[in-house]
Design goal:
The protein is an alpha/beta fold. It has a single domain, classed as 5'-nuclease (Rossmann fold). Helices cover about 50% and strands about 10% of the residues. Helix 7 (about 135-140) links the parallel strand 4 (about 125-130) and strand 5. The chain starts with a strand and ends with a strand.
Length: about 160
């Protein structure tokens, strides 16, 4: 199973998604592709940010998200107990603090979402599919992922665990 990162889900919403994305999902099979409650949170945060300046866009993205969440459309993985334990360990891992603490002067707080996505992926044995490989490689150095794949580049950064 592949757990899509938020950047990959957002790419699916584009009028013209990356040319490799849909063919990769079709070849993989939609039942083998999942999202997580953390992705839902990140998308909702984005909706709320844009709602202030572009309410029509916010409504459009909210409708897209509702369609994505319709029963049976895509599997949504939750933060279950095993993932919560892994996430707690990650939060207390000094090399991963930069995922939680924003740079001084930053306008956006750090949510630790990548840590949570990684924890869910580890507990579910799912490969993380992202175009944001750098952050997940940092996490992988301390908490090995079951795999890390960039579907836009068709590249494995961390081979799928046997």
């Amino acid at each position: 199973m592949f757990l899509l990162d938020t950047d990959i889900l957002s790419n699916l919403r584009k009028i013209k998604p990356h040319p490799h994305l849909i063919p990769w999902i079709d070849a993989t099979g939609w039942p083998e592709v999942a999202s997580s409650v953390i992705n839902v949170m990140e998308i909702q945060i984005g909706i709320e940010r844009v709602r202030r300046s572009e309410p029509a866009l916010a409504t459009s993205v909210q409708e897209w998200l509702a369609g994505l969440l319709q029963a049976g459309r895509m599997q949504i993985l939750s933060l279950e107990t095993d993932a919560a334990i892994i996430l707690g360990k990650m939060y207390e891992s000094p090399p991963l603090r930069n995922f939680l603490i924003a740079e001084p002067g930053s306008k956006r707080p750090r949510t630790g979402a990548d840590l949570a996505i990684a924890a869910i992926a580890i507990s579910a044995g799912a490969v993380v599919a992202t175009n944001n490989e750098r952050d997940f490689l940092t996490i992988h150095r301390h908490f090995p992922l079951p795999g890390l794949f960039n579907p836009l580049e068709r590249r494995w950064s961390v081979a799928k665990a046997p």
